[in-house]
Amino acid sequence: MLNKFRSLKARLLLLGLVSSLGVIVLAGATLWYAQRSKAHLLEFVEQHVALNRSATVTYANGQQMGQALRNIILDPANKRGYDNYSSAAEIFTQESVRLLELMRKDPAEASKAKELETRIVAWRPLQIKVFELVKAGQVGDATALLSPQETPACRAHLAGKSIAALAWKA
Q1: Which residues make Cβ contacts (< 8 Å) with residue 138, sequence separation at least 6?
Q2: What is the pLDDT along the chain (170 residues), one digit of tens a residue?
Q3: N or C: the chain end with fewer CB closer than 10 Å?
Q4: Rounded distance, CA 2 to CA 158, Å?
Q5: Other C-beta atoms lying within 10 Å of the C-beta of residue 102
């Protein structure tokens, strides 16, 4: 009888050890999967959420620049239009650089980065030219440049496959 008791005791001890080992393996696997999930989430936030945020800020400030430019043409004496333009242009410049960097890191967006950069490079000088014409008192020339050249360049830059598409990408 004592022999059977020891055998039962040994079996219970073995069962306890195997159960403990199972719990330890499951805990280790859980920690590994949690770390892996954290890395994937951080990558998603650092790339995709940052790309969306940067596109939204760039888009909004591009729109603000266009509106401020039109307000300057309507009332060249109003200093607030110039201030709004300068503020939006500063943020736009910073965010568009960041946006292009983020786009180049994302394989799905990398091919679009060069096209977007080309549009920005073509659009910004037109805005600056309109701005300079207004400052020089040539509002008529500024208006003539705005409608047929700057506005279409702005629309091409802010709409379609560029910033707006990135900003509202699902």
Answers
A1: none
A2: 445 556 878 888 888 889 999 999 999 999 998 888 888 888 877 778 888 888 889 888 988 988 898 888 889 899 999 999 999 999 999 999 999 998 898 887 888 888 888 888 888 888 888 888 888 888 888 888 777 767 676 766 665 455 656 555 53
A3: C
A4: 86
A5: 21
| pTM for the whole structure | 0.68
How far apart, in whole angstroms, are the C-alpha atoms of residue 125 and residue 2? 97
How far is it, in rounded angstroms, from Cα 75 to Cα 39?
A: 52
CB 141 within 8 A of CB 26: no
| Residues 6+ away with beta carbon under 8 Å from 135 | 76
Both tokens of 20, joined, read 């403990």
Gap between the Cα atoms of 32 and 62, Å rounded? 44
Q: What are phi and psi of 106, to 5 degrees?
A: -95, 115
Report yes or no: 163 and 59 within 8 Å, Cβ to Cβ.
yes
Write the CB contacts of 22 (distance below 8 Å, at least 6 apart in sequence).
none
Tell me the domain boundaries of the chain: 44-167
- Architecture of the domain delimited by 44-167: Up-down Bundle (1.20)
